[in-house]
Amino acid sequence: MISSSSLPQLQIKIGLLGANASQYRPAYGFGQSVPAISIALQRARNEHLIDFVNFTFTWLICDCDQVLAVGYSNKLILDQDVDVIIGPPCVTSALDAALPPGFYGLPIFLWGATIATIFNDNNIYPTVTNLNSNTLCLAQAIEAVLLQFQWYEVSLVYIPDDIRRVGYFFPQDFQNVVNANPNLTIVYNQQMAATTASMHNALTQIKNRSRIVIANIDNIATRRNFLLAITDTGISQSNEYVFIFAQLRSLGMLQQITSNSNTSKFDDFWKVTNGVDDGRDGDALKAARRTIIVDLENQSNSQIDIFNAKVVAEFGKPPFNCVNECMGGPNDQIPASYARSLHDTTYAYLRALNKTTEKFGYLTKDLARNGTLINNMSKGEFQGETGLITFDDNGNRQPNFFLTMLDISDQANVVMNITTLIKRYTNETGLWANRGGKRPLYKPICGYTGTECPQNITTYILIGVGLVLLLLVATLGGIGYAVREKLKEKERLTR
């Protein structure tokens, strides 16, 4: 590790592409997120990764507008002469904003909801380092779960939104994975609306078609409504159903909720999200017992709360000075849910600078601006705020998925790691304790309608034995009758 104070100070200009419209602030608002950069910088300085580098910042707000994103990306490179771009956090705008850095050879580091599989294509995005895993990796993780438990027929339901947009990318990737596997079949595929009627209709269709349901619902309030729909349709009463929620949040069975005091905390995913008790947490819990969540490695709620407290402490401070209108209204004064992601992508960039210095023994502007080199220098692993982060040679994050479900005490329990499949349970009886200790079948013994029960083989055995005995009795009776008649005939002839 290079930490010599004798190295000349290098000036690095970081360009940020952000989002700050009111609808984006809870997820990745500018003021609610950028303190994470300051926290990452302080960590890197504490570890003496960047003792020889001074940083300045400039930023443009593209608000997930694709035209603005590509235009502002060019503007940061050509007019403001930045050395690296961080952002944007929206997947659709990042798809366009990441192209100019590839053309000019500058590094770009992505965070937030940049979950599109195409970012892994090094021919299109040669200088992208993406903190996120993608929806194809998520689909492959779901495939591994289905094969592990021999669940071969599944339904797929999803409700996308315009913030995270996982629901726009995951269904197609999952269908492609299933189509390539001859053992798996999607028997029902439906995009639902975020309405109770649409959810009930889909669940009614599922009752007669499958018992294993893959669900992707981006919005946490909508997801809870779906849990309530599962209970309201009577499905949660049955041990037969399994709902597998596929997500890329690094939260597992936690969710960020807002309390009445305008602070955020992390709580169980079946609980009401707005701090106003509607009396239905118990109903949502009944459905949660029928669910499995597959998500990237997550931290504990206490770890997340500690990080968020650091973010709040940096609100409004230099170098970003985001106050007043920049921070939005009184309900916007909480850390963005993706702030941890921004911390980790910033730290990954600072770490890549240090590794470049280690490789060459020095760091120059040309080296720092070499997007392909910096991308390659991102390789390796470190412990981040979103879990253990591992990058490959091309700056793609290698996923570490956790499979989480509730135990008999309704506590979230990680039962499996999916990189290569690693079981974290010793027996299936305990694993399925909420279902009578038995693994659910992908098709019930009596079929989806309950009318296909196989006849009890004992009945057939008893009938068969009865027929054999009847035949034996008849045979013996016939033989006895013949012998008797023969004796009578002999007696008659000897008189």
UniProtKB/TrEMBL annotation:
It is found in: Membrane. The chain crosses the membrane at residues 460-483. It comes from Meloidogyne javanica. Residues 35-401 form the Receptor ligand binding region domain. SUPFAM superfamilies: Periplasmic binding protein-like I (SSF53822). GO terms for biological process: receptor guanylyl cyclase signaling pathway. The keyword Chaperone does not apply. GO terms for cellular component: plasma membrane. GO terms for molecular function: adenylate cyclase activity; guanylate cyclase activity; nucleotide binding; peptide receptor activity. Its main location: membrane. It comes from the Eukaryota. InterPro entries: ANF_lig-bd_rcpt, Cyclic_nucleotide_synthase, Peripla_BP_I. Keywords: Lyase, Membrane, Nucleotide-binding, Transmembrane, Transmembrane helix. CDD domains: PBP1_NPR_GC-like. The keyword Nucleotidyltransferase does not apply. This is Receptor ligand binding region domain-containing protein.
